[in-house]
Amino acid sequence: MYKIQAPESEQDYADYYELRWRILRAPWGQARGSEKDEFEDLSHHVCVKTDSGEVIGVGRLHTVQPGIAQIRYMAIDEDFRQTGIGRKIYQYLEDVARKSDINKIIIDARINAVGFYEQMGFIITGDGHTLFDVIQHKKMEKKIILIE
Ligand SMILES: CC(C)(COP(=O)(O)OP(=O)(O)OC[C@H]1O[C@@H](n2cnc3c(N)ncnc32)[C@H](O)[C@@H]1OP(=O)(O)O)[C@@H](O)C(=O)NCCC(=O)NCCS
User: Fold this and answer.
1) 65: exposed, middle or buried (Cβ count in 10 Å: 0-12, 13-18, 19+)
2) Ligand 1 pocket check for 139: Cβ under 6 Å
3) pLDDT over 90 for what percent of the chain?
4) Nearest to 147 by CA among 101, 104, 96, 93
5) DSSP of 30-59, one letter per residue?
6) What is the CA radius of gyration of the chain?
7) Which atom of ligand 1 sits closest to the CA of residue 77?
8) How much is the pTM?
9) Which numbered atom of ligand 1 lies nearest the CA of 59?
10) For the chain, which domains are there?
11) In Å, what is the CA distance from 83 to each residue of 31, 32, 76, 77?
12) Torsion of CA 84, 88, 90, 92, to 10 degrees
């Protein structure tokens, strides 16, 4: 059984950023600390934990302008991919967006994750940046229909 929740304790946050760094930064030789940006305190964070308390999935949503939010830093431990955890994290963040009157979610998607976001209902709207000189990105978006 897994538990999906906002990180709460100091240890939760340490594990949350550790997984983010390990998956999204360490393979490209990036220093600890590079996994964070200036929007952390303004963001909604979510993590998935195993029964034993190990953090195996993370994601973040923050508002970039009224009505528009961005998802960043989605990362699932390699041993737990393709088991639906990414979808659970995405759905959690979309629910947060709906409750925050967001009508569009945008993503700068790494090329390897574009297929995943298409499964979540996103479309490609253009080319994105190239991170660390090698990781190509696509700009993607999904309109959120707010139901009364
Ligand atoms: C992309 C990522 C978050 C997906 O998480 P996941 O837990 O493996 O995804 P899920 O198991 O919930 O998959 C949901 C659906 O998307 C599909 N999917 C998952 N990853 C995919 C990929 N890379 N390409 C195409 N489809 C993918 C699954 O097959 C599944 O489809 P289904 O519902 O028809 O069976 C994960 O692979 C990851 O952490 N990648 C490395 C970090 C990264 O690149 N993050 C994105 C930064 S923009």
Assistant:
1) exposed
2) no
3) 96
4) 101
5) PPTTTT--TTGGGSEEEEEE-TT--EEEEE
6) 15
7) 39
8) 0.97
9) 3
10) 3-105 (3.40.630.30)
11) 29, 28, 10, 11
12) 180
Token pair, residue 26, equals 């360490």
Query: What per-residue string of b and e applies to 109-147 under the rule 16 or more CB within 10 Å gives b?
Result: bbeebbebbeebebeeeeebeeeeeeeebbbbbbebeee
For ligand 1, say whether the CB of 65 is within 6 Å of any of its atoms: no
Establish whether residue 29 lines the binding site of ligand 1, counting it when its CB lies within 6 angstroms of any ligand atom. Answer: no
> 4 - beta bridge partners?
48
For residues 140 and 121, give the distance between their C-alpha atoms in angstroms, rounded to a whole number.
10
pLDDT in tens, 59-107: 999 999 999 999 999 999 999 999 999 999 999 999 999 999 999 999 9
